[in-house]
Amino acid sequence: MKIELSKPFYVDRVTIVGIGLIGGSLARALKKNNAVGTVVAYDVNVDALEKAKALGVADEVTTDLAEAVKDSDIIIMATPITVMGRLVKEMLPHLKEDAIVSDVGSTKGSVIRTITEAVGYLPKRFVPAHPIAGTEKHGVENSFAELFEKRRTLIIPHINNNHSAVTTLTKMWESVGSIVEEMGVVHHDQVLAATSHIPHLLAYSTVDTLANLDDRAEIFRFAAGGFRDFTRISTSNPEMWTDICLENREAVLQVLRAYLKKIALVEEALDKEDRETILEIFSRAKHARDNFYHEP
Known about the structure:
Layout lengths: L10 E7 L3 H12 L3 E7 L3 H9 L5 E3 L2 H5 L4 E4 L6 H8 L8 E4 L5 H11 L6 E2 L1 E3 L20 E4 L7 H13 L3 E4 L2 H27 L4 H6 L3 H7 L6 H10 L1 H23 L3 H18 L4
Parallel strand pairs: 1-2, 1-4, 2-3, 4-5, 5-6, 8-9
Antiparallel strand pairs: 7-8
Helix pairs in contact: 4-5, 7-11
């Protein structure tokens, strides 16, 4: 019996639209794993493009979207989610027939909706995706090739999708060390609201609350590890997270309302000096964190 080993993933040309932390890290990872011949970076920020070229993240850089995508096999949009519809509409006339377009956005319902509204339909070779990876830093200068290793990437197929496009994109993410899973649009936005969007909202709100107290200087001076760990993500890009929360507001509001009910329960227990209720909530939380969450 002849056993054929699968060939390593490789494409000639990948375009990164928006060369920041995520886009830059993907470019580095593809290069590190010999999965791409040429990386093209498109951005409206000339400084970011110059950094990408100087750092060796991109082989070619341009502020011309048509030029950036015209010969590419895969185009990855790593831009604010609010501009993706316009970008897809602008790039479509310039794509190769078999080119695949994807994104790395943290919401999926809004991205699919804006692309459909902009184009009039959902292109069959547009494959929504979301790598569950990142740091609180941003900019191509903070990108690194190992960002996606042993991290999950969610592929969100839609009813119009070309099967080979989904398969190719899955192999691309696997080639950079990611663990790929498929998920539905609605479920994705609900899960990410709970696990990513609400934590960011709470971190920003906590720091803002403390920053408006009269003794804020002393509070921040004595803040220790717990404060640092809980609020680290509040140093993320505020504009990006404002858009994410607004674009996924229905799912965020659903989780936020459940959270506020729990806070109200704790507030009532504190007011009544109800140690049993507080201990029960804290104990359930510790059990859940210890047993259900495992560091990737």
